[in-house]
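hey can u check if this looks right to u? its 207 residues, i copy pasted from the old doc so theres a chance i mangled smth
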Amino acid sequence: MWNQRWATGFAGRSSARAKLMVIGLTVAGGASSAPYNPQHLSAVQVGQVAEICQTVMGFEPSKPLVDNLWPGSTDPESSTNNYRGCIASLSSSLKRVPTVWAETQAQDDCRARGLKPGSSELGLCELRAVEATSSRDALENQSLVVTPFSEISATTYSPSDSETKRRQRSACAEIGLVPIQGAFENCVNDLNAVLLTESMSALYRNP
């Protein structure tokens, strides 16, 4: 099952570490503020997303905020930085994980019945299966398994495109998406938009 990867997350090291981060991480510039949580994730989930943004993407919550003027930004707030944009981006992708995996499971189940790819029978079968199994609350009792960036690679941070793309793909994998899913590339593209937000906002500020 797609959620077996998270079955023991609450009892694991990552869950405990994420809970500590929920207590310790705050919105940049406000030590008494709650952790940034634009998608209203559970306390454990937002802590784990914050951890991914720091340990995998290398973003710091203390980076100064800038005006968020670019319509393509993934952060809904008027001020942002890479850390907040990353949290907003990964939180949105994480919200879609149950639906993505329901679609994948539906596809596998329908093809197992012998329905042919490209046929209307397969399409209708998958649609009905997704509608029957999707649940908006599927993530509330699940946890992510977060691997620190130092354990993914010993490579020193580099701003190169290949290194940045590798980090983005690792972050999307951390929330439970896999490369064969369209949502995975959407997740990577959204993280790339985070890196563009500051420069694009500057253009909107000075047309």
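The helical segments are 13-24, 43-55, 82-112, 120-133, 149-152, 161-174, 182-205.
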